[in-house]
């Protein structure tokens, strides 16, 4: 018999897991696969909604899942260091990350503690893996959300075509933030005509797994 934590896990059938440790493991495998794969069939959790607290209430927006550390239970996304969400996370580091995999009919809700990385080696490491297409997102001359006289694509005219220059990359790097999200709790919900299934995996401050009424 394999031990609870070493049970074989398949990533194509998360909801078939009938034991909580298997379900936990399959969810994390699917998150990791979604971050690393370009194939949409593997990427059900590629986009997520980041919900943040603000001084006057709450805010939310979609971002792309960029990196998953399964062993330590961290997920990462990237953003412009000048954006509103960065100010919000600096003031209120706890956030909720919401994922919906339409194909598998699975929602994951992650409660996280965030940490911003802008000018350290962890940010450098992730920046160095970006292609020019992604780097363009960090070339705006204006802080995200500032009013413009007309439609503005988010980068200056000279980078519309052709390769980026070292100066463009250096400017983009200044605006880049990698957001580390330490997962405190993950909640799973599977929708099915046979009945919904809900479970909670608490990682911190104490580790606990439970099935929940949906
Ligand atoms: C599919 C999709 C993916 C997105 N990915 C990102 C992303 O990875 N990082 C990011 O900062 N914004 C991303 N955005 C834009 C954000 O949703 C948001 O509009 C922007 O970051 C400004 O948010 P803020 O003003 O709350 O900081 C994405 C939007 C969509 C629709």
UniProtKB/TrEMBL annotation:
It holds the Pfam family Pyridox_oxase_2. InterPro entries: Pyridox_Oxase_Alr4036_FMN-bd (IPR024624), Split_barrel_FMN-bd (IPR012349). It comes from the Bacteria. One of its GO terms (molecular function) is FMN binding. Coiled coil: none annotated. Gene3D superfamilies: Electron Transport, Fmn-binding Protein, Chain A. Residues 27-111 form the Pyridoxamine 5'-phosphate oxidase Alr4036 family FMN-binding domain. This is Pyridoxamine 5'-phosphate oxidase.
